[in-house]
Design a protein that fits this description.
Layout: E1 4-11, H1 33-46, E2 51-56, H2 60-73, E3 78-79, H3 123-140, E4 145-150, H4 152-162, E5 181-187, E6 190-197
Parallel strand pairs: 1-4, 2-3, 2-4
Antiparallel strand pairs: 1-5, 5-6
Helix pairs in contact: 1-2, 3-4
């Protein structure tokens, strides 16, 4: 039988963002107090599992989410650029109709093709880099488990590609809650199953900004 390896894609915890900014790849956005608790809840959920490798997006919120995991397993955190947040032209803005960026005609040309999407990094690019990162984590932890801390949209796109679904989707229908775990199960190099869990569900008090 082929070796079984599990790669867990962990979304970071809640970010301190009282103004509701779509922060994307902007620096300076850190976990909130609840976000720190979510990271600890995720680490507790993983405790006792056979985790042999730990990777993180370079964004502060992801690296902070990885810290309790590093302490739990005594593993170094390897920063993996391919796990980073999706690029988005609306970074630094609030997103919506009201007072958000959608009411500005200058932004409308960025919305012409929601299937790509036209406002940022393409879904194909996201899927490719995320699955490459997952494969790298699989190889690093062959026969064991690996954790990759990333972001909502990249994780959701990776899952949709893994499940052979269309990449286009409605942002409000993503099953990728704060500090949630999307797990890829491999037999050898073949992806055979996908599962989902929410270790910090009890700590979630309000919806987060889509794509964060």
């Amino acid at each position: 039988m082929s070796e079984k390896t599990i790669v867990h894609l962990l979304r970071h915890g809640e970010v301190h963002n009282p103004e509701g900014i779509l922060y994307g790849r902007l620096p300076g956005y850190h976990l909130s107090e609840d976000g720190v608790l979510m990271a600890k809840a995720a680490a507790k959920w993983f405790a006792g599992r056979d985790v042999a490798a730990l990777f993180s997006s370079p964004m502060e919120r992801a690296r902070e989410t990885s810290e309790p995991l590093s302490e739990t397993f005594g593993l170094p955190v390897t920063v993996e650029d391919r796990l980073t947040e999706a690029a988005n032209r609306f970074e630094g803005m609030t997103f919506g109709v009201g007072k958000g960026s959608l009411r500005r005609p200058a932004n409308w040309p960025s919305l012409y093709n929601p299937f790509r999407p036209s406002w940022g990094e393409s879904y194909e690019e996201i899927a490719s880099r995320m699955l490459e990162a997952a494969a790298g984590a699989r190889d690093a932890a062959r026969g064991h488990e690996a954790i990759c801390v990333s972001h909502q949209l990249p994780i959701w796109i990776a899952r949709r590609r893994a499940e052979q679904r269309k990449l286009w989707h409605h942002p409000t229908r993503r099953q990728c809650q704060l500090a949630s775990v999307t797990s890829f199960v491999y037999e050898g190099t073949r992806l055979v199953a996908v599962s989902y869990a929410e270790p910090a569900a009890a700590l979630i008090r309000r919806p987060s900004v889509p794509g964060a």
